[in-house]
Design brief:
The two termini are 29 Å apart. This protein has helices spanning 18-28, 68-84, 113-124, 153-163, 178-188, 230-241, 260-266, 294-305; strands spanning 9-13, 35-39, 45-49, 57-61, 89-94, 128-132, 147-150, 168-172, 191-199, 205-211, 218-226, 247-254, 271-275, 288-291. The protein is built from eight helices and 14 strands. Strand 8 (168-172), helix 5 and strand 9 form a beta-alpha-beta unit. The longest helix is centred in the N-terminal third of the chain and has 17 residues, at 68-84. The strands form three sheets. A seven-stranded mixed β-sheet has the order 10-9-8-11-12-13-14, with helices on both faces. It has a five-stranded parallel β-sheet with strand order 1-4-5-6-7, sandwiched between helices. Bound molecules: ribose-5-phosphate.
Length: 322
C-alpha cells in the first residue's frame, strides 16, 4: 500500500458470499467493484479487477466459510491483485474467520492454523482486518496490523428483544463461552447458566452438568458458532430435561456442516436465530430466523474510511440510525 488513500471507497466481493456483499453495497450505497473471478480449466483461480483502483480505500469482502481453502486462496489472490494495482489501503473483511479454532498448540505436532491465516494475509498485502466474533479474540495478537473485531451481539439482541422472551436465562453450551453469555445476560438483565461440555473428538461431545437454574425458565442459548451442531443440540436437549420451557438458540456463525441441520431439527429448540455471516448451503434447519450483519459491516466500513470509532458498534446497533 502507499500509506495514503483517496476519498474513494471500493468494495471488492470475493465469491464466498455474493448475497452479503450485495447487501453491504446496498446499505452503503456504494457499488461493488467490477471484478472477474473465475477458474482456469485446471481449477486454479483467475482474477481481474476491471476498474482503476489506484489510491483507493479498498475493502475485500470474503468470509472464510466452506469451502474454506478455496475462499482463503481467493482472498489472498485478491489482496495480491489490489497491491499490484496500487490500492491506497486494503482491508480484508472476513465476516467469519475460518481456522480460528486452531489458535494454539494443544498437543504435539499440530499446526497453529489461525496464525498461518494471519501470516498469509499480512504477506498477501492486507493493511487491516475487519471481522466478527472470532472464535478466540486473542487471534488479534497474531497480527501486527490493526484488527477490528466486531460482535454480532447487538444485531442478535435486536431480534431477541423483539421475541419478548419472559424471564429468560442466558445459557452457554460450554465454559469457554461464559464471557459472551455474560455480556448477553448483562444486556438483557437476565440470569446466567452454564452447560459443562467435554469434547471427545471434532464431532463428538459429552455434556455433564448444568450450572445455574433453568427449571421452569425460558432459555436463550448463545454461542459463537454452530459447526456440526453437536454442542448446541446436546445442550438444548439436556436443558429441556432439566425443565427449561422455551429454548431460543442464538448464534453468530452458522457453519452448519455434517449432520448439523438434522441435529438442529431433532433438538427441542423453539427458534434457531443466526446471522448471515455465512451463506446458507442447501437445506436449512426448520424454525430458523436469520438477521443480517450487512448494516453493521457497512457502517463499520464507513467508519473505518472516515477514521471514526468502531467501538460505538460493540454494544448496541440501531439499523435505522446507521
Ligand atoms: C466451541 O468452543 C464453540 O463455541 C462451539 O460451541 C463449537 O465450535 C460448535 O461446534 P459443533 O457445532 O461442531 O459442536
Amino acid at each position: 500500500m502507499s500509506g495514503f488513500y483517496n476519498d474513494s471507497i471500493r468494495l471488492i466481493a470475493g465469491t464466498a458470499h455474493p448475497d452479503l456483499a450485495r447487501s453491504i453495497s446496498e446499505h452503503m450505497d456504494v457499488p461493488l467493484c467490477d471484478a472477474s473471478i473465475g477458474r482456469f480449466p485446471d481449477g486454479e483461480i483467475d482474477i481481474k479487477i476491471n476498474e482503476d483502483i489506484r489510491g483507493s480505500d479498498c475493502f475485500v469482502l470474503q468470509p472464510l466459510c466452506p469451502p474454506v481453502n478455496e475462499n482463503w486462496i481467493e482472498l489472498l489472490l485478491l489482496l495480491d491483485c489490489l497491491r499490484r494495482a496500487s490500492a491506497g489501503r486494503t482491508t480484508a473483511v472476513m465476516p467469519y474467520y475460518g481456522y480460528a479454532r486452531k489458535d494454539r498448540k494443544d498437543e504435539g505436532r499440530v499446526p497453529i492454523s489461525a496464525k498461518v491465516v494471519a501470516n498469509t494475509l499480512i504477506q498477501g498485502g492486507a493493511d487491516r482486518v475487519l471481522t466478527i466474533d472470532m472464535h478466540a479474540a486473542q487471534i488479534q495478537g497474531f497480527y501486527d496490523i490493526p484488527v477490528d473485531h466486531l460482535y454480532a451481539k447487538p444485531v442478535l439482541l435486536n431480534a431477541i428483544r423483539k421475541m419478548k422472551v419472559e424471564n429468560p436465562v442466558i445459557v452457554t453450551p460450554d465454559v469457554g463461552g461464559i464471557k459472551m453469555a455474560r455480556s448477553y445476560a448483562k444486556a438483557l438483565g437476565a440470569d446466567l447458566a452454564i452447560v459443562d461440555k467435554r469434547r471427545i473428538s471434532g464431532s463428538e461431545i459429552k455434556l455433564e452438568h448444568v450450572i445455574g437454574e433453568v427449571d421452569g425458565r425460558n432459555v436463550i442459548l448463545v454461542d459463537d458458532m454452530i459447526s456440526t451442531g453437536g454442542s448446541i443440540s446436546e445442550a438444548a436437549t439436556i436443558l429441556k430435561k432439566r425443565g427449561a420451557k422455551k429454548i431460543v438458540i442464538a448464534v453468530s456463525h452458522a457453519v452448519l456442516c455434517g449432520s448439523a441441520v438434522e441435529r438442529l431439527d431433532a433438538c427441542p429448540a423453539d427458534i434457531v436465530l443466526i446471522t448471515d455471516t455465512i451463506p446458507s448451503r442447501g437445506v436449512a434447519p426448520k424454525r430458523l430466523e436469520i438477521v443480517s450483519v450487512a448494516p453493521l459491516l457497512g457502517t463499520a466500513i464507513q467508519n473505518l474510511h472516515a477514521s471514526k470509532s468502531l467501538s460505538v458498534l460493540f454494544d448496541t446497533f440501531d439499523e435505522d440510525d446507521a
